[in-house]
């Protein structure tokens, strides 16, 4: 990547198109997710090499439980497999955080998630956020409930509630907002992903399906991001 290019601080990626990728090849949908998980691993490594502060992958939404059990189980198995690999990213030094409501998980997967978060919490490299059972509206409602409880219990005053305090009650607490949201597969929707955090983000939509997504596609997206004139509401 040419040295004059500004690398975003935090990219949010909606990994979309796994099902269509598999369908085109007459394969089961889970084969698309498997290829998608491999791409996730490679693009994570590339984000590290590019020097990003954070990257957030949308892996499983609060709505994805509606899919057939076989597909949900397949995604959960891939998560176990690739989370172990993510945890082995010694060289990359990632701090791994799971965004989302963990109360839906139990057993081996939950233990793995908690273990990875604990063991990587002091790492100084890129933050790797994996959104699992994540929904932005759900996140905002939880934040509002937790703030309300603290007001009720006299721990904070109503007047203390401002944007900064509210942000601290979200799963992304302490992290820079994403400056760039990327959605491959041709769909042009945010799908309940980082609604609060992406208030000033640039959106780039690409026609490639996630399992076909390459490092060169990320380069293209970052070049597109560089063409945008970010004014943050100013002139
Ligand atoms: C969206 O494509 C993708 C998902 C709902 C699952 C994403 C999961 C993975 C890539 C596997 C595991 C993740 C990690 C982090 C290891 P879709 O199925 O909605 O595609 P379609 O719109 O073409 O049907």
CATH topology: Undecaprenyl pyrophosphate synthetase
Strand order of the largest sheet: 3-4-2-1-5-6
CATH C-level class: Alpha Beta
Report the portion of residues in β strands.
5-15%
Number of strands: 6
Chain-averaged pLDDT: 94
For the record, the count of structural domains works out to 1
Detailed description of the structure:
With 235 residues, this protein is α/β, with parallel strands linked by helices. Helices cover 41% and strands 14% of the residues. It contains seven helices and six strands. Helix 1 crosses helix 2. Farnesyl diphosphate binds next to helix 1, helix 2, strand 2 and helix 3. The site of farnesyl diphosphate has 18 residues, from helix 1, helix 2, strand 2 and helix 3.
Give the structure's gist in a few sentences.
By secondary structure, the chain is an alpha/beta fold.
Task: Outline the secondary-structure elements.
Elements: E1 10-14, H1 18-24, H2 29-50, E2 54-61, H3 69-87, E3 95-99, H4 107-120, E4 127-134, H5 136-152, H6 163-167, E5 180-183, E6 202-205, H7 215-227
Parallel strand pairs: 1-2, 1-5, 2-4, 3-4, 5-6
Helix pairs in contact: 1-2, 2-3, 3-4
The site of farnesyl diphosphate has 18 residues, from helix 1, helix 2, strand 2 and helix 3.
């Amino acid at each position: 990547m040419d040295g004059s290019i500004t690398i975003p601080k935090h990219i949010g990626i909606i990994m979309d198109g796994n099902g269509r990728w598999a369908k085109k090849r007459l394969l089961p949908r889970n084969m698309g997710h498997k290829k998608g998980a491999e791409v996730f691993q490679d693009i994570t490594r590339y984000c590290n090499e590019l020097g990003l502060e954070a990257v957030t992958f949308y892996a499983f939404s609060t709505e994805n439980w509606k899919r057939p059990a076989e597909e949900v189980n397949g995604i959960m198995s891939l998560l176990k497999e690739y989370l172990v690999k993510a945890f082995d990213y010694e060289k990359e030094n990632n701090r791994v955080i799971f965004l989302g409501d963990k109360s839906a998980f139990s057993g081996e997967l939950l233990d793995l998630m908690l273990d990875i978060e604990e063991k990587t919490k002091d790492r100084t490299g890129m933050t790797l956020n994996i959104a699992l059972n994540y929904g932005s509206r759900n996140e905002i409602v939880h934040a509002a409930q937790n703030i309300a409880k603290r007001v009720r219990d006299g721990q904070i005053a109503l007047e203390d509630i401002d944007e900064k305090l509210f942000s601290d009650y979200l799963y992304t607490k302490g992290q820079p907002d994403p400056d760039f949201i990327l959605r491959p597969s041709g769909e042009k929707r945010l799908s309940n992903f980082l609604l609060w955090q992406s208030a000033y983000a640039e959106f780039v939509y690409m026609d490639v399906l996630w399992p076909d997504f390459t490092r060169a596609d990320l380069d293209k997206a970052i070049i597109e991001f560089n063409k945008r004139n970010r004014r943050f509401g100013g002139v």
